[in-house]
């Protein structure tokens, strides 16, 4: 079972972000990297502007939940671990469950070209678990995740105050985000 220090729920409520170091042991990280390397050849390239999200750009390759469920039970099982769901439920103070919509349940986003971005957007689930396998060492080179500190009532994703967290290379980080939806901004 994952264990978190005292005050974790309070920090999550204040920042809408929670790092979960040690979520996967080194052997699990190696297995996840091997799985994703194998599946990367089937990723679909996405280059578009999301009109429903203030024209935010999206440039990346993706592997959707349907393909991951069929091709990688290991990845699918990570997101339904009872110890993880129980831990996140205790931190958030409400039940955290696996999303019902299989295509959006889990996704691999591959940002492997200069200027690739997931774009500023909201997700349909109130929480998201993010695993970073690789990230630039310098935040100026990318690897920045932003989450809203206020509800999403702003007409533009670019004007909302956010909490930023820099991802670290070769050290995956798991995060949960809330309310009421998740956001990652360029």
Automatic annotation (TrEMBL):
Residue numbers spanned by region Disordered: 141-186
Biased composition (Low complexity): 162-186
Gene3D superfamilies listed in its UniProt record: q2cbj1_9rhob like domain
Pfam families attached to this UniProt entry: HalD
Superkingdom in the source lineage: Bacteria
Protein name as it appears in the record: Uncharacterized protein
Organism: Streptomyces melanogenes
């Amino acid at each position: 079972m994952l264990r978190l220090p005292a005050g974790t729920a309070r920090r999550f409520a204040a920042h809408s972000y929670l790092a979960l170091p040690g979520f996967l042991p080194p052997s699990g990280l190696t297995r996840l990297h091997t799985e994703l390397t194998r599946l990367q050849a089937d990723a679909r390239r996405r280059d578009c502007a999301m009109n429903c999200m203030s024209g935010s750009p999206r440039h990346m390759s993706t592997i959707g939940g349907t393909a991951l469920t069929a091709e990688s039970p290991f990845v699918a099982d990570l997101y339904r671990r009872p110890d993880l769901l129980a831990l996140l439920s205790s931190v958030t103070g409400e039940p955290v469950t696996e999303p019902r919509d299989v295509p959006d349940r889990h996704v691999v986003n591959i940002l492997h070209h200069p200027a690739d971005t997931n774009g500023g957007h909201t997700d349909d689930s109130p929480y998201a678990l993010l695993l970073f396998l690789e990230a630039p060492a310098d935040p100026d080179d990318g690897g920045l995740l932003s989450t809203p500190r206020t509800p999403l009532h702003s007409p533009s994703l670019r004007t909302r105050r956010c909490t930023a967290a820099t991802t670290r290379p070769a050290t995956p980080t798991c995060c949960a985000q809330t309310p009421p939806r998740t956001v990652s901004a360029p």
